[in-house]
Amino acid sequence: MPDVRRAPRVRRQGIPMQVRRLRTPIRARALAAALSAPMGVLALSAPVQAQAPAGQPPFRAPHHSLSVPALVGGGTHPRPGEISLAHHGVLFLDELPEFNRRTLESLREPLETGRVLISRAMRTARFPARFQLVAAMNPCPCGWRGHPARACACTPDQVARYAGRVSGPLLDRIDLHLRLPPVAPEELDGPPGEASAAVRERVLACRGRQLERQDKPNAALAGAELDRHCALDESGRELLLQAMRRLRGSARVLHRTLRVARTIADLDGAERLGARHVAQAVQYRAE
Question: Model pTM?
Fold first, then answer.
């Protein structure tokens, strides 16, 4: 019988490096946000700066055994958790289904509000928590489901239980869902892809368009602002509604998909939000 315990580790070894490269495009954004933040936020960033290279946004990758207070903060004398230490940076959760369900569910409110409120008997502590969440998981417990050259050893029930460890409401709050195919050995020696510095320039230009148009990033658009800045033509609207019916998407999913589509259009340098931008945004949603 094959030793499936080691298989996911071999196949997943490139993911942390891909995630760490997110630091390059968000570095300038994090610096600008820190300079405009209230003093409490800057003070909270001090322990992070000692661990991150100078000029780099924080990158936190906690182990899946951490508790709710360790993730979101808490204690008799409340202290910030990992999500606040990742403020204006990246929080990477590897092996997502291995985290305790209650720990994962504690992310839902901070992902919406960008802050954490911890109530104790005589006081309430507020910590900032606006971070880029990146999570990774295998397609099944053994890690081989869908592999072109190796069979999965899991039963359908095992696959369903594994996927069910991550709730639908949490997945709704993750805007981009990507399936990464296995990399063939010969591809590792191929030409390098686009440099992180080039990606950073495109991201900064995209963000500049957003700030010029609406004085805030697309992620902060809500209500009437969405209607004004993410207006769709008839074909785009019909495509989005069809996708939401197929995905059984909530209003939250619809609004998040609109924001992603608007960002894709900004990366494309397009003033108008078109059906092709909506189609690409919908592709990033899990079935």
Answer: 0.81
